[in-house]
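Exercise: predict the fold of this chain.
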Amino acid sequence: MNASSNETAVVVKNLEKRFGSFIAVNRVSFEVRKGEIFGFLGPNGAGKSTTIRMLTGILAPTGGTGTVAGFDVRTQAEKIKANIGYMSQKFSLYEDLTVEENIDFYSGIYRIPPEKKKERKEWVIEMAGLQDRRHSRTGILSGGWKQRLAFGCAILHEPPIIFLDEPTAGVDPVSRRQFWDLIYELSGKGVTTFVTTHYMDEAEYCNRIGLIYRGELIAIGSPDTLKTEFMQEEVLEVLCERPQDAMGEIEKLRGIQEVALFGKGLHVVAQDAGRAISDIRSLLGTTASVEKIAPSLEDVFVSLIESRDRADQPQQEVRK
């Protein structure tokens, strides 16, 4: 990240989107600094795509204010579109066109000057690793190649801010890793990246993360900040024989809030680590390994969601 810059690329205050009586985004506020990789994390239906569509000028907000690259999301949507790159969940490529033809098409849309078109086209082809496939029909490319081509087309005009909506959904792990290398490279050049994802490992690559749930921003901070400041419970790693069988027994213990399979063992969320370690060792015997660990982002996210659900429950009961 371009850490020397404290300037903001995106500013959002009480942004809201309603569809009839349904509140898709509920008074969300945050800022994204120039050169930052900002992750927007949440389950499907949480409001990630709706937020990104408001910020990219595609959808008008119902309430609140926001600026992107200094332009107002309510009144300057066209100016925003000219100053950002946007890659949606469904790669916006024309499958019947060749790789080169797709790039030429987007060069026209972004009004790239004739003298720069060839240079930018070659940059995209090289970046995407498509030198030998420039004349291939886009529809026959693998998911990873389509993804890099779509990314290249989205940043042909060298925008200062790029919005990526679930850019690695359905792409193999190697292609996902290569894609994030490209994002890091651009961030090093001062480009701001706003990326939505539901992959917890990808969230770790971001400088800061906003967690959105049911349209509300429930936490924001760096991955380390979220793990150290937002997780009120403690997390234990349990390695034992037949972890699935052990899971049901551990869940019955007092003070245990959640037990989940994690790799070859279990992650146990407990109110008091000391008591939980003692109880689990008594339950499973000396062959089991039980130790307190730093929470993963997944642990933090599940804890925050469950905490929010518990807070909402009494309100729902009162309404009844």
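Check your answer against the key: Confidence is low (pLDDT under 50) at residues 1-5, 315-320.
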